Structures are given as C-alpha cells and as structure tokens.
Amino acid sequence: MAERVIVNEVGPRDGLQSQGKTLSVAQRLEMIQVLLDAGIRSVEVGSFVSPKAVPQMAGTDELFGQLPLADEVAYSALIPNVKGYELAKAAGARSVAVVLSATETMNQRNIRMSLEQTIAVCAELMQRARDDGLEARAYVAVAFECPFEGLTPARRVIALSERMFEAGADKVIIADTIGAANPRAVRELLMPLQSYSTAGRISCHFHDTRGMALANVLASLEAGVREFDSSIGGLGGCPFSPGATGNLATEDLVLMLNSMGFATGIDSLALVDAVKHVETLTDTPLGGHSFRWLQRQHQARQEVPHA
Ligand code: COA
Ligand code: ZN
C-alpha cells in the first residue's frame, strides 16, 4: 500500500494573513469548503492573534463554530500567547500551534516577547494543551534564516525542537518562513531529528520564495518527514517578516507526492478549481509552477465525453 503523506493546508492562515484584502468569515469558510472539495483533510483554519496586529484573522472564533466535516478533518489554529490559547480552546479548536521563532529579533517583531519568554510561554502552552486533551503543535520559525539576524544555526533549531518535545509537543513544524532553505541545509537540520520524523512528529513548512521549496520537500522526505504545510496557489507570506512571499503551492506539493507514489488523498486536478476559486475570493493572481499544466489536464478531463 502507498505510504501516506499528510498535506496540511495553511492558506486560510498563512495565506490570508498577509493579503491586502481582508476576507469575511463567510468567504473564509467558502475557501475552506473548496479545499475540502478537492480532498484536503488537514487545514490550519486561522490564528487567534490580536485583530489590531492582523485584522485579516479577526473572527477566527466564529469560523471555528461553522467548520464542516468536523469529525473527518484535522483542523488547527495558530496561537501566539496564553490569551490566544484560551480563545482557541473556547472556540472549540482541537489542535493548536504555538510559534517559536529561532531568533531574538524575530520573536520581538512577531509576538513582542524575547526568545527566552517565548520558550517559556510555548512550553507552558504545550503542557496545557496536552493536559486539556488538545493536539499540541509547535512551529520553529525562521529555522534556516532570519530576515533580521541572517543564517540560523541548525543546532539552535534542533535544541528548540527538543525543548518543545520535552514540554509535551506532539509535533514540531520546522518553518522556513522566508524561503531561504536549500536541500543541503534541510538535510543537516533534519538528520539529527530523524527519530522524531519517522515517528510522524516532524512537519515541514517551506516557502517557495527562491524556487527551492520542492527540492527542500524531497530532502525532507529522504530524512523521514511525512507531513508538509502548503498553501493553495502559493498564496501567502508573513506580515512581520520582510521578504516572506509565496508559500509552497499545494498543487505543486500534491502533484509531486502523488507522482512519487505517496498517498495524499488529494486529486491534483481537483485543486485547479480551488486555485481559481481562491484567486477570485482574494483578488490575487495564484498558481504554482505546475498550475498551467494542471489546468490543461483538467480541461482535457472535462472534455472527455461521459460513457
Ligand atoms: N488574541 C486576541 N487579542 C489579543 C491576543 C490574542 N492572542 N493577545 C493579546 N491580545 C490583545 C490584548 O487583549 C490587548 O487588547 P486591547 O488593546 O484591546 O487591550 C492587545 O492585544 C495588546 O495586548 P498585549 O498583551 O500588550 O499584546 P502586544 O501588544 O504585546 O501584542 C500579540 C502581542 C502577540 C498579541 C500581537 O503581537 C499579535 O497578535 N501578533 C500577531 C503575530 C502573528 O500573527 N504573526 C504571524 C503568524 S506567525
Ligand atoms: Zn509561512
């Protein structure tokens, strides 16, 4: 049987948080629905952050109350602090992801805490999530390079990941926030974490800023990683991290994984409709490297007369 790889769609959070156009809760729900229609079963719904800092994410609590297929889909929420945790839990989130940036400056800019404070808060929240029966996830952001401090030492990211596991994290998400990783750096960082990867406890989050996201996915697969974040059509970026442009496009990730014989449960051609729909909703031109080819295949499939 084909080996399973989880594709976690982060467009509704990482994608939308940096868009000029703020979608309504109804539009965000519509976006999630078209993603589910394409077979996606793991979605980061939004974040519980200050609506003054990120107005695009206001109303995530309301959105959680309306999510379809709640028993079949792994929905998660990003939380920056204790208040975010409490709001997420009250809204019914069953999986929460804290954000620990690997550098001092990035923590300050993103969530206004020092690295040390962030480690303490994240560790506390991992423990609380475990105690409350929620899935506990921890992003280690700017894991390869920080827009303010330059290259991030791999040993620091490894130590932070281990710290989060010790605190109770079910999963650590290695996040290349500004798309600066390369396959060799990915290998160096992930090899020491391989026992966690093969236990399904490491996920990777790449941005395609420099066109290397899929190469980095391949290096991660070779290091045993079987879960990845991606964003429909490549929508996204981080508002607090200059230069963080498009996420790895979901259709590129799914096409590569399916072609390699992994089971994602997602039909790459069905993602064409999702890309177009989200393009209309966000007024942003979208589409990964493979999008035009997928579109042609999609059209050809529709033209085949039904038997
Ligand atoms: N959700 C909603 N509101 C929150 C909140 C949360 N998780 N945490 C704090 N707030 C509110 C406070 O209630 C307060 O509201 P008020 O001004 O109406 O009294 C206001 O935000 C400031 O609170 P404070 O604790 O002083 O926070 P801060 O100003 O130091 O900002 C964050 C810290 C984390 C809330 C803010 O920087 C933030 O939301 N950043 C978003 C980071 C993000 O989304 N990054 C991208 C994803 S990695
Ligand atoms: Zn990101």
- Rg is 18 Å
The helix-strand sequence is: EHHEHEHEHHEEEHEHHEHEHHH
- Tell me the domain tally: 1
| Small-molecule binders | coenzyme A, zinc ion
Quote the CATH topology: TIM Barrel
Shape: globular
Number of helices: 13
Tell me the total number of β-strands. 10
Provide the residue-averaged pLDDT.
96
CATH superfamily: Aldolase class I
CATH architecture: Alpha-Beta Barrel
Report the end-to-end length measured between terminal Cα atoms: 30 Å
Largest sheet: 8 strands, parallel
Structural class: alpha/beta
- Briefly, what CATH class? Alpha Beta
Low-confidence spans: none
Query: What spatial order of strands do you see in the largest sheet?
Result: 1-10-9-8-5-4-3-2
**Strand residue percentage:** 15-25%
Helix content: 40-55%
